[in-house]
Design goal:
- The structure is a single chain.
- With 372 residues, this protein is of the alpha/beta class.
- The chain is 47% helix and 11% strand.
- The strands form two sheets. Strands 3-2-1-4-5 form a five-stranded mixed sheet. A two-stranded antiparallel sheet has the order 6-7.
- A hairpin with a 4-residue loop joins strand 2 and strand 3.
- Helix 5 crosses helix 9, helix 9 packs antiparallel against helix 11 and helix 12 runs antiparallel to helix 13.
- The longest helix has 32 residues.
- It is globular and about 75 Å long.
- The two termini are 37 Å apart.
- The relative contact order is 0.10.
């Protein structure tokens, strides 16, 4: 069984895999599976396009196992969603050909006038029977990569929560005419405690205690992720050759891509992370649009954060920095923002190139040389 991954989004423009398949071969049986949180709707058509089965299946491993085990190998199409990663792996275990459709690419911005679970399942089945390229299928990452990625996302949630609580405390104190001193997130509870007005202490002190607890948990995640990168994903060390790329950025990059050969060209990686402008050309009109913001938000945010460091006061001289500075010198509206996005996009391309070809980074020339 081969799982084809085509374009993950129509505006992303990156072909994520090069597994070949015959789009002209119509399978003997194609099943469209519209996944629901509790019940999933199945709709099966034969090679002639005739509906041969239609039923609801509970969205549980036991019910889906029974449903999949009772039929010979066939093509199964489902939409991407919360349950699609584990269900796609379950479908593959029974020797079925599985495709995970991208609804945002299939339907675009337009809204269907009539839709329900049955119609969605039928649509998936008939699209999958006709030509799977119409599904813009995506490729889910493996279970271990998904589990490790959740550690990164859990840490990110704690950091965002801590930031929100710190901002809340600063705003509450400022509303009473007092300002808290500047401090890092780690040192904030200690430095803020001495400046909180007595009237606000009952409301604020519990938050300061919780912020300290969050900081301890974040440090624990940092140690866990550092060990994970060192023992399970040693390739992250090659990516950390670039100043500004730390263990979090390198590990997220490796986990989100998982297999570097899925991209034919490193330039496609910038589009995969949503760092390329949208495309809406018509005749002679080529408007300058915002970036697509496709792909994983955490990965894109980490790349942009690394780009800020490279262009910031502590970024060392390198080709990436010179590239961003040249863009900023052009001036214009949002020149700095455009430069940061351009550097983040170039950084993503460079990281993939170093990883795929096992190269040593040359900061002054923006390229790399082959490692011994």
């Amino acid at each position: 069984m081969t799982t084809y991954a085509g374009r993950e989004a129509d505006d992303r423009g990156s072909t994520m895999s090069h597994t070949s398949y015959s789009s002209t071969t119509i399978p003997a049986l194609t099943i469209g599976l519209d996944l629901g949180d509790r019940l999933s709707q199945a709709y099966a058509v034969d090679a002639a396009g005739t509906c041969v089965e239609e039923r609801a299946v509970a969205t549980t491993a036991a019910a889906l196992t029974a449903f999949l085990a009772e039929r010979p190998p066939c093509r199964v199409v489902l939409e991407v969603g919360t349950h699609s990663p584990w269900i796609s792996r379950l479908v593959a275990l029974f020797g079925h050909e599985v495709f995970v459709a991208n609804p945002s690419a299939m339907y675009g911005a337009r809204r269907r006038r009539k839709r329900n679970d049955r119609l969605d399942a039928e649509f998936l089945a008939r699209q999958g029977r006709a030509d799977v390229r119409l599904l813009y299928p995506i490729q889910h990452r493996s279970a271990p990569a998904q589990q490790h990625l959740e550690v990164l996302r859990a840490r990110d949630q704690l950091v965002r929560t801590r930031t929100a609580w710190i901002n809340h405390v600063r705003g509450a104190v400022k509303a009473l005419g007092t300002r808290l001193p500047a401090a890092s997130a780690e040192a904030f509870p200690t430095r803020a405690d001495a400046h909180v007005p007595d009237a606000l202490r009952p409301a604020v002190l519990p938050l300061l205690t919780l912020i300290t607890t969050l900081t301890t948990a974040i440090r624990s995640y940092d140690a866990q992720l550092e060990a994970l990168a060192r023992t399970t994903y040693p390739e992250t060390a090659r990516l950390r050759q670039i100043a500004g790329v730390g263990p979090l950025t390198a590990l997220a990059f490796v986990l989100l891509i998982e297999e570097p050969t899925r991209f034919a060209h490193s330039r496609d990686v910038g589009a995969y992370f949503g760092l390329v402008p949208r495309l809406d050309e018509s005749s002679t009109l080529t408007p300058q649009l915002r970036i697509t913001k496709a792909g994983d938000p955490l990965g894109r945010r980490l790349l942009v954060s690394a780009a800020h460091y490279i262009l910031g006061p502590f970024g060392p001289p390198c080709a990436l920095r010179r590239h961003g500075e040249a863009l900023m010198q052009r001036g214009g509206t949002n020149a700095k923002k455009r430069a940061v996005i351009a550097v983040a996009r170039k950084l993503a391309v460079l990281l993939h190139h170093l990883w795929r070809h096992q190269l040593t980074y040359d900061p002054q020339h923006g390229g790399a040389s082959r490692a011994a």
